[in-house]
């Protein structure tokens, strides 16, 4: 469902993107080319700051927002998702938040008030809160990364984890083409 926010902003979706009919996109959401937005995802840019401003939620080209993902932002703050980034099933991205390009965010993970650098891998059930994660870091499953975390103790993304992330992005890009081909059948 594509709908306006209370201020009247409508999502802008590139014609090559696929948005599942069960997904909800509301307000100042920008979806770039060849993006896959899966079933029951909710992307809402509807809260305003004290001056009635809203920054956009931007989903970068060739990225995928999988089933049940929630992307929202407090008080109209910006959320940027880079290119070729995968946000896996039921993850939450709550702004203000910047997620770089080539990032993988695992199932049920939570990103809040943070920056996740390019090529990072955040595995399932992890939390990244209030921190700037430099490019290429690997957050293990169930870890909580915050302002007090010693980032030097975090491992760099391994070749296997990087290959997995690229495979997920590639697979979901193929889904865009398949679903776009049959979208008028449902």
From TrEMBL:
Keyword Repeat in the entry? The reply is no
The transmembrane segments are none
Q: Which UniProt keywords apply?
A: Lyase
EC code: 4.2.1.1
Q: Output the InterPro entries linked to this UniProt entry.
A: CA_gamma_LbH, Gamma-CA, Trimer_LpxA-like_sf
**Molecular functions per Gene Ontology:** carbonate dehydratase activity
**What is the main EC category here?**
lyase
Family statement: Belongs to the gamma-class carbonic anhydrase family.
Q: What is this protein called?
A: Carbonic anhydrase, gamma class
Q: What organism is this sequence from? A: Orrella dioscoreae
């Amino acid at each position: 469902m594509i709908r306006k926010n209370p201020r009247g902003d409508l999502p802008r979706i590139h014609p090559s993107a696929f948005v599942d009919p069960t997904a909800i996109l509301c307000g100042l959401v920008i979806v770039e080319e060849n993006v896959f937005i899966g079933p029951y995802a909710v992307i809402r840019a509807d809260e305003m700051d004290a001056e009635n401003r809203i920054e956009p939620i931007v989903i970068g080209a060739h990225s995928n927002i999988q089933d049940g993902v929630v992307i929202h932002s407090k008080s109209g703050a910006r959320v940027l998702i880079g290119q070729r980034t995968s946000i896996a099933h039921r993850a939450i991205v709550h702004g203000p938040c910047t997620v770089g390009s080539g990032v993988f965010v695992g199932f049920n993970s939570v990103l809040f008030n943070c920056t996740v650098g390019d090529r990072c891998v955040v595995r399932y059930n992890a939390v990244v809160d209030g921190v700037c994660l430099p490019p290429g870091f690997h957050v293990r499953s169930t870890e909580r990364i915050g302002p007090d975390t010693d980032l030097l103790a975090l491992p760099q993304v391994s070749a296997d984890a990087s290959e997995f992330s690229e495979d997920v992005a590639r697979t979901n890009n193929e889904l865009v083409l398949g679903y776009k081909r049959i979208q008028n059948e449902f």
